[in-house]
Amino acid sequence: MSAETLAVESDFFAPRTAIDDLLFAFLTEKAQTAPVPGQSALILMLRDFISGGKRVRPLLCVTGWIAAGGAG
């Protein structure tokens, strides 16, 4: 793999990493301030469920955007 390939891959996954970080922080904060008993556990399960490779559709949207010439 060349340095250029690594840079392109890094740019490709950057939006996904940023979204993952934002969702993780948002759901963690919501779990800590949940007003209803049991809601905190449910939010943490949701946070764990969406982590990893379970969001294919958003990745395809970003891929399509980049393929169509989108930037940013």
Brief rundown of the structure:
The protein is mainly α and 72 residues long.
What does this structure look like?
This protein has about 70 residues and is an all-alpha fold. It contains 3 helices and no strands.
Task: List descriptors.
single chain; 72 residues; mainly alpha; 3 helices; elongated
Measured distance between first and last alpha carbons: 24 Å
What order do the SSEs take from the amino end to the carboxyl end, as H and E? HHH
Give the uncertain stretches in residue-range form: none
Average per-residue pLDDT, rounded, comes to: 78
User: Using DSSP, what is the number of strands?
Assistant: 0
Strand content bin: under 5%
Number of discrete helical segments: 3
Described by the principal axes of the CA atoms, the overall outline is: elongated
The computed structural class is: mainly alpha
Biggest β-sheet strands, sense, barrel? none
**Share in helix:** over 70%
Radius of gyration from CA coordinates: 16 Å
